Amino acid sequence: RSAAPTDLVVFGGTGDLAMRKLLPALLLCEKDGRLAPTTRIVAVSRDGIGDADYRGKAEAAVADSPSVLRAGAVPVPVLRRFLDRLHHVPLDLDDPGDGWDRLRALLDAPPSGDGADPDAAGAPGAPDTADAGGRGRVYYLAMPPMLFGRICADLQANGLAGGGSRVVLEKPLGRDLESARGINDAVGAVFSERRTFRIDHYLGKETVQNLLALRFANMFLEPVWNSRWIDHVQITAAETVGVGTRHGYYDRSGAMRDMVQNHLLQLLCLIAMEPPASFEREAVRDEKVKVLQSLAPLSGEGALRHTARGQYSAGSQGGREVPGYTGEPGADGASSTETFVALEAAVANWRWAGVPFYLRTGKRMARRYSEIVVQFRDVPHPIFPGQGAAATSPNRLVIRLQPEETIRLHMLAKEPGAGELRLRPAPLELSLSDGFAVRSPDAYERLLMDVMNGDPTLFMRRDEVEAAWRWVDPIIGAWQGTDPEPYAPGGTGPRGAHDLLARTGRAWHEGE
Ligand code: BG6
Asked: Is the pLDDT of residue 121 over 80?
C-alpha cells in the first residue's frame, strides 16, 4: 500500500546522502506506486538554486544510482511524476534571510496547486501524527549531528514544528555519550520521543528483517539459540572503498563511531535479543536495549586486549594503486583515526554467558560483504571415519546481508557413492533475492516508508543509542595515545584482528 501523504523536508537536500541514497530510494518508491499522489519532497540547502535546477541535479543523481540501475528502467512518466514532486528552498542557517518564510509558504500551500488535496482529511493510512488536514510532515536532518538541536529550535521558532511533524536523525548521533545526550535533549525539547526517528539504515536491510523472521516465526532455532549449542558469533561489515571524499567527517569519527556504535551493535542486538511479545515498536526496542545493557564493559587494558584497530596504507587493490588513509583528499598528514575495528564482546546474561561475539568492520578490504556467522559447537564425539580435521565445526548459520541476500545453514552430508562413507559440506540455502520473484527494496526505501507511516519499530530509541555509547566510550578512551595498526588495502585487515581469534583457536570466516 502507499505511504500516507507527506511533506518530506530534507535538510542537506543537495548533500551526499540525499543524492546517493534518499532520492534514489524515493524514486523506487514512486516506481512501485508507494508515494501518495500529493506527497512532496522539499530539499533545503544553502545553494541558491530553484526547483528547476534542483530537479536537474536530482535527475542526474538518480540516473547514476546503482540501486536504481539494478531495479531496471524507470518509465519516463514515472520519472516526470517524481521530479514534479521535488522543490528546493535555499536556506542558510547562519544567515536565513527569508528562507524560513519561503519554506513555511511552500508547506502551507496546498500540494496540488489547485487548492484541492485529494489525500487530505481522513485519508486511509494517514498516520496518527498527521496534522488536521491528514498530511504528515517529516523533517529529515541529513546534516552533521551538532546541528540537529539548532535546526529543531529554528523549526519551532518559525512555527514549523507543530503537532503533526516528525524528525528523522541520521547517525552517528553525537561522538560520545555526553554529546549524544546533549543532542537528544535539544531535539527532545522540540520533538517528543514518539515523533523522533533515529535512523540506522542497517535495520532497513531486507536480510536483517529476515533474521527476525527466521528467529521468531520458526520454532527450530530457539532451542539451540544459546551458549549450550552456539560456540561464537561473528559479525562482519567489510567494504572495498576507502573514505573517498568524506575525510573531513570520517577523521573525527573513525570506524568505531561510524559503523560499530550503530550498525554492528544493532545486528548484535537482533541476534542476541530475547523474543519480544509482539512485533511492535516498544516491544522490539525494549528487548534490544536489554542486550546493550548486558554487554560486559570493556575498558583500559581489557579493552586493548579485546580489540584490534587498523588504518589502511597505500598499496595495490584489485590491480590498481590506491592512496593510504592519510593520502586521501582532504587529509593533512598523520592521523590516528581507525578505518578498521575488530573486537570481542560478551553479552553477560544466561543465554549468552561464555559465547564471544566477534565484530569486525573495515574499509579497503578485499571484498565488500556484510554477514553474520553463528557458529555451532562441534559434535561431542566423532563417529565417522575421516570426520577429523576437515569436518571441524561443520555447523554454521551464515546470514549474508550483502551483496547477495542469503541465509545458509552449513552442515555435513554423505558424499554419494557405494564406497567408503565420506562426508562433504552441504549447505542448505535460502536465497532471498532469487527465491522470491520480487525485487528486494533498498534499506532507505523501507525506512522512508516507515517514517511516512509513523512506524518507529525499525528506528533506534534514545535509550538504545545512549546505551551503545555507554559501552563504546571506554573502548575509545582506552585507545587514546595508541596508533592503529597499518594494513594493506585489498586484504583482510591487520594482524591484530586475526590474533584476537587465533588465541582461542578460532578464525574469521572470510565469506565465500
Ligand atoms: C554508513 C557509513 O553508515 O554506512 C559509511 O557512514 C559506510 O562509512 C556505510 O560506508 C555502509 O553502508 P552499506 O549499506 O553500504 O553497508
From this structure: no
